[in-house]
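Many introductory courses stop at the sequence. We go one step further.
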Amino acid sequence: MLKDLIANQKVLFSKNLYFAGHIETIFNDLKSKGDLVTAILMLEEKEQSLLLFILQDDLYAAVQLNENTFSALPFTDYFTKMSQAQGAIHLYVTNPIFFKALLVLAQKKPNIVATTDILNIEALLNQVQKKKKEAILLLKKKDEMNLFYFRAGKLSEGYFQVPERMAKEGSLQEQLLVYTYSSDEADPMEIQLFYDLDVSPAADVDDALEALGEGVERQLASRPRLILRQEGTEELIEKVLNKGIFTLGRDLRSDWAIKDQMVSREHAIIKEDQDGFFIEDRGSRNGTFVNKEKILRKKLSDRDEIRIGSASFFFSEKEEQAPPQDTSDEMVEEVLSEPAAEERGTWSLEFLSGKEVGRFLELSPKRLSIGRGKTDVVVNDPKVSRHHADLEWSEKGFFLVDLKSTNGIFVNDQKIDKKLLSAEDVITVGDTRLRVVCKK
């Protein structure tokens, strides 16, 4: 099969489970090394494979592979499919010839289609030689696929799905002929010959990086998360479980570092497998509790409460699902005693950096969207998502709410998920800084 032919290339990266951000991490790593790598990224699912073609570190094209049939995809469709996909992911480094040959299969139609019982393979090779043109030859023997490349009519490259079945001696053309004649007359090979090798990048290649970021956002938005309610405040801190093993502990290198002497340095992990998400205690001194029960390993369900030291988390399988709310009298009194936001004056945002430094934008007392797209507060910054965050109006004033954006949003240099804004707060979104202004 074609995916087995691809798998014969050199593996640079491989994971049995694909998680949000893998593509972005791989692509950024390639860029940072500056080696100008030509590669194919393949995500394998049971019914299909998704291929991303990377030419000298730049995104070039995307393809869907069903059985042995290629279909070219716009990047927007590819990253949408990737945001919903589950499977193994592999990055294969390849040479420009193999890279081009696969794109020919995806983008072009063969000039000749026949079988070896009808078309004499030697006559075909002579025809290609006389034309003195570039060509790609595909030989299909049931599910076995082999590719051959001709430069100026001369056979110069061969890619075999099962190399050990090829003759160990002789020229490449002799090996091709021996292989072809080994076919049973009752079950001939299929021949496809391509003369048109003029491949091209995806039509939306200029928007590829934007589509990549949005695809990551979509997948992160669909994944479970941990929610921590900070004691004594209404503020919620939330983190997406965006990797196969998510660590919790006092060690600052943990995915969620907990500053509490009751917490061990490596206290617990949340691990994903085919059956769901499991939390495992890592031999901690004071134990890990789920719904007040001490556990060693337990499968997590939506809204389970996890207690580690004095920290209380909620496991949420659904996007934007908050933990149970505290409705104590103290909170009611706090709300009643809070002055009405209208009494504080007119709210606006001042652009402190970015392309519109010095601009003031008055804020209407309603829900307002922030982002790079068609939003109420437009921020022209490539690091900002199309719909990055919202400003939610309430009797207390404006709450700033991050919408699971790729790069997050910060208030006074602290990353937030939801925060009540005050005058003179500085919001950082992408590389743009905005000052909150309130005129009485």
